Every structure is written in C-alpha cells, then in structure tokens.
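S.,

Sequence below, as promised.
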Amino acid sequence: MEQGLNQSQTLRQEQVLAPQQIQSLEVLLAPLQELQAKISAEMVENPTLEQETPGNEDLAGDLLANTEASQLADTESERKNSDDDGIAEIMRLAESWRESTPIFNPSERFTSEDMQKRQFLFDSLTEEPSLQEILLEQLRFADADDKTKRLAELIIGSIDDSGYLRSILADLATVGGSSLEDTKKALKLVQSFDPPGIGASDLKECLLLQLERQGKGRSDLAKLVRNHLDEVAANKLPRVAKKMGISMDQLHELLDELKSLTPYPGSALASAAPLYIVPEVSIEEDNDGVLTVKANSDHLPKLRVSQYYLNLLEDPAISKETKDYIRAKLANSKALIKSISQRQSTIARIAEVIRDEQYDFFKEGVDRLKPLTMQQVADKLGLHETTVSRAIANKYLQTPCGLLPFKFFFSTGYQSSDGDEISSRGVMEKIRNMIAMENPEKPLSDLQIAKMLKEEGLSVARRTVAKYREEMGIPSSHLRKEY
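The prediction came back faster than expected:
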C-alpha cells in the first residue's frame, strides 16, 4: 500500500467553559469565609477593584447596594471616547455606587483610642500549645539520660492528638538505632507524664495506666479492665459478674468508677483549630409571627470600580497597551461583581423556598419537617439541580431553631396513611423519641420500632430503622439493655 500524508475536516460540537463562567461557579460554590479570601486575593491582583470602605481588618459592608438596572444612571453621553459597551456599563455601575455610598476620605486619620483598641486586639491573639509541645516541655525537665530523652522525643512524635502511640515500638527502636529494651524504658518515661494514660497503645492499656497512677493497679476495677473489658463493651454484664464472683450491684459500682476514667487522654490537651461558621441567610420571626428571609451581607465587602482607572481610559496620553490592560482588569472586576450579586440572589431565593416549604418545621419542630429535594427547589426557581447543589454546599442558615446547614432541609420522606408527608429526618426524630421513652430493662428492637411506626401510618422497613438508628449513633437493643 502507498503511504502518504493527507488532510481531512471534521465537524464536532463541544462545550467549553469561559473563564468568567468558571469564576461564577467558584463564587457560587464558596462559603462566605472562603469567598472573602477569594475577593481579597482578587483585590490584590486587580488594581481596578476597590473596597468601598477600606481600613478595616475584616471585609465588611453590603454588596452592590442599589445596583438594580432601574437605578443605574445613564452616563453614556459623558464618555463618548469609549466604544466598549462593557466598559460603559462598568462606568454606569461606578456612578451608581458613588451616588449611593459615602466616599472614603483618605485624609481621615485613626485616633489614639482607635490605635489602642487595634493593638489590644492583636495582643489578645493567642495560640494554644499542641499535645506534643506539652509533652516535650515535661521531657525537658525529666530526670533521664540523653539517650533516653532522644528516644522519648521520637516516641512523642508518634503520639496522635488523642494520646495514643500509633507506631510499633520495634519500628521506633529501629529508627532510633537503639535496642527494644532502651525504647521500652523511654516509653515508660513518656507514660509517666501528664495526662495519665498518655502513650498507651490501646484502650485497655490506657485505662490501666490511669488506674496505676491512682494506686489501683491491683483493684477489682483493674481486674475488670484487664480481663473483661470486651465483655463489658458487649453488655454481657451477668456473665462478667459471675466470672468475677461479685453481685450486679457491685459490678454497677465498678462500671460507674470506670466511666470516670478518660478513654482519650490527649483530647483534653490537644489544640484544635476553632471552626467558625457564618450563616449565609437568616430566617427571622417578627413581632407578628411572620417569617422573613434576610441575606447576611455584613461579611462581604462593598465593591466598586476604581474611578482612577476609568479616567485613565479617557486620557489620550496613555498608551494602547496600558488601556488594553485596564480594559481586561475592568472586565474581570465586572464579572466578579456580577457573580457575587447572582450568588447572593440565588442563595436568598433558595432560602425563601425553604421558608415556604418548611413553614411548619420553623413553627412546630423537627416532627413537621417535610420531604424536599433539590430538583423540587430547582423547578420552582427555574434553575438546574446542580446550581442548587452548588449554592447550598457547605453553607448554613440561621433559623429560629438554631444554626442549621442548608442540606438539613433536603431529604426524602414518607407519606402517612392519612396523606401527611414527613421527611426521613422527622422519622429519625420519632425513632429517637421512642427509644428515649422505652423501658431500659426491655429495650425496643428495630422490628418493634418498625411496627410502632406502622401503627402511626408510616411504613418503614426494619433495616431502614436500623440504618436511621446507626446514623443517630444509638446502639442496638442488646447494647442498650440495663441489668
């Protein structure tokens, strides 16, 4: 066959997301605090984007105040030198913002009282020491030779935040270039530190270390932990009492004492980064009992386009390359501001649908929570289901019932025999209440709970009851039984 090169044409269609579309999706997906970081980063890179009221440590202020199309002033005639429709629109937006918000005075100075408050806030910032740092501080003053301290430092580095040693001692001996006996000696030193139980390899050793520190290493409680801990966990208490030769009352006394010990000794000392949650929207009840939706704009900056760069576009002395750069940055500013505006509007509209659909929940509680899907909300708002999913991801809603994630209100459900709908969360709450009211000596089985729900008109399978019970962290009936 003859070989050669040839050309051919093919026609195909594919969807490519523009950078502005990608940015819009990222803005919609980001929670408030992440969005603050994105805006701050954009303001650093984009000189045409300004914050309306600079000078604060935190981003604050309403976003796009009075920027509806009906309120935008038509100033196209004042900018005849600009033939770019997008730039003209940005100019109109800038004029509108300037009319509706006070102009920051650069000559304004902070008072000495303001500076003192600012310095006080900075001086108040503290950092909690980690568990490893606390243990190393105790090691620094320990009475031991350098070799033992070096191995102890290696052991401390292998202790997790719960206080357990997660590495095999023989491996640590190999890494430290020492014998197993010397490593055990170093581990003994670490286990003598506070809190008691630190450096244990499992729960049994952790509890025994605490008992030894209390001088109860040979007590009945130590025997219970050493020989019968697994049976206690399986709630086989009569068998344990028989093996130990004690009465059930004596066993209960030992169990009460066992509960005073700490299963995770490091958790009380391990520093954890605080989790801050800022609600996107608040649903509030006014004096007349009407539920209103209020967008939380206090944590977003009041953005505007820099008038300085708008004026540069009209300056004939500025080069074409500079003007092209300014136009590109102004386009990015316009896209970001519009994306934020659409984000706030979408989240507020979703919150309004939740308020209307879950009105009974806000008034009467979890039992009245109705089944609701993202597709139902999307159909009501004329959006795609994925848009609703992005809009509510990792976002929270402040309600009269407390701070709740948006996803709390979305769940499948059941229809009772009388036609009422109830969400799966409502069914879970019913199961929780049934278990709370049960006789602890004869706890309800999953099958019995399913029968009780059926008597209320809810057809829920036994395996579904078990699934909901496990999701709520409630143990099975044989583990809940009290003797």
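The first strand starts at residue 49 and ends at 51.

Coffee later?
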